[in-house]
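Long-time lurker, finally posting.

We've been working with MipA/OmpV family protein (Rhodanobacter lycopersici) and I want a structural starting point before designing mutants. I don't trust myself to interpret raw outputs, so I'm hoping someone here can both generate the structure tokens and explain anything notable. Sequence follows.
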Amino acid sequence: MPAAYSRLLFALLCLSLPFCAAADSDDTPTLAAGAGVQRMPSWAGARTQRSDPIPFLDIELPQYGFSLSTEDGLQWDLIRDTHLHGGVYGDFQWGRDHDDLGALAGKLPALGPRATGGGYLEWDFNPQFDTGVHLSHDVNGAGAYLEFYAEWDPPKLGLLEQSLQLRWQSMNDAAMQRFFGITTASAQALDVPAWHPEGGSQLATLEYDLFMPTSKHTGLAASLEYGYLLGNAAASPLVRRYGSRNQLTESLAFVYHF
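Top reply, 14 upvotes:
Generated this for you. Predicted structure of MipA/OmpV family protein:
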């Protein structure tokens, strides 16, 4: 199966688009589907980028506290207070395959995408600003992730909807080793020191999202995300020699809101 096709199928199961739901009432279910393209680092820490076709599906079922979105992953709200929310959380981590690694293929192991599951807590200060935390673990046991975030929705510019999000993510030892560690065999092939990092801060991210309606049911969604590697992720010889601390991701999609 081609790499881009397998990633597309995996994303179809795990992703959805958060836009278009804002105009609905609190009790109105939402379903939006679309397709687009995402350009992202070829692998975590890479200086090169890859482009993937991405299907989008946005499901919002407020009466059950259920949502599935690219912005928030899978969330099932079990607390549902006026300001405090919390419950089940799910997402996934991109991997890297032979084509993604390019000249490093055969020198570094490929990593398949992995689903993660855990919980979350969120505090809504008002409809425009919230902050929260996600704690999740690889469902196959390959690492745990902790993420703090704050999101602000600025006022609309005409019909243009905006969202700004700041995130900080850390990893445990297993996750840091999986993405940024270098075994003795890989170190010899890459001509760099072996690297067995401990967990800690991994990435700080600033994301800006836009949605422009093009009709009653359609619109264009765009996202620009700048990430900066931290701690042992940034210090990895893999990043210092072959990658970059600066991680840029862009996406554009056409969305149909049912």
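Before you design anything, note these points.
DSSP finds six helices and twelve strands in the chain.
Residues 1-25 have pLDDT under 50 and may be disordered.
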